[in-house]
């Protein structure tokens, strides 16, 4: 499934969000100051990306992930931004907090 920036770009181009219903990607050609970028995930989830800062050499993002169906323990993701990439494995909260959002910071 592909979610494009036209559907999810907000807050002056600093926030990108989407619902990924299957294994897939959020792909944004540009979104205000952010872009181009791709976020690949290996499980269905809700995603919110916030661009904190960007220079020619590095960008820092705050990413919120959740599994509203409460089916998964981990979400593996890869963030690609302007030709650079980084990956992470995010551990989701166990019951009774299953489904809650997890926030991480990634620099790419």
Strand neighbour order, sheet with most strands: 1-4-5-8-9
Oligomer: single chain
Global mean pLDDT = 79
Shape: elongated
**CATH architecture call:** Sandwich
Pattern of helices and strands: EHEEEEEEEEE
Distance between the termini: 23 Å
Q: Write out the CATH superfamily name.
A: Polysaccharide lyase family 8-like, C-terminal
Spatial extent as radius of gyration: 13 Å
Summed up, the domain count is 1
Largest sheet properties: 5 strands, mixed
CATH top level assignment = Mainly Beta
Helix percentage range: under 10%
Low-pLDDT parts are 1-7
CATH topology: Chondroitinase Ac, Chain A, domain 3
Instruction: Let me know the number of strands.
Output: 10
What structural class is derived from the secondary structure elements? mainly beta
Question: Your description of this structure?
Answer:
One of its GO terms (biological process) is carbohydrate metabolic process. One of its GO terms (molecular function) is catalytic activity. InterPro entries: Lyase_8-like_C. Helix content is 4%, strand content 56%. The protein has 108 residues and is mainly β. Strand 6 (45-54) and strand 7 form a beta hairpin. It has a single domain, classed as Chondroitinase Ac, Chain A, domain 3. The two termini are 23 Å apart. It has one helix and ten strands.
């Amino acid at each position: 499934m592909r979610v494009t920036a036209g559907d999810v770009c907000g807050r002056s181009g600093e926030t990108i969000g989407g619902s990924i219903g299957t294994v897939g990607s959020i792909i944004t050609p540009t979104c205000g100051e952010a872009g181009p970028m791709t976020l690949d995930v290996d499980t269905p989830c809700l995603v919110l990306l916030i661009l904190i800062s960007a220079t020619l050499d590095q960008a820092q993002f705050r990413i919120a992930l959740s599994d509203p169906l409460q089916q998964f323990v981990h979400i593996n993701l890869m963030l690609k931004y302007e030709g650079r990439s980084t990956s992470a494995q995010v551990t989701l909260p166990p019951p009774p907090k299953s489904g809650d959002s997890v926030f991480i910071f990634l620099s790419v």
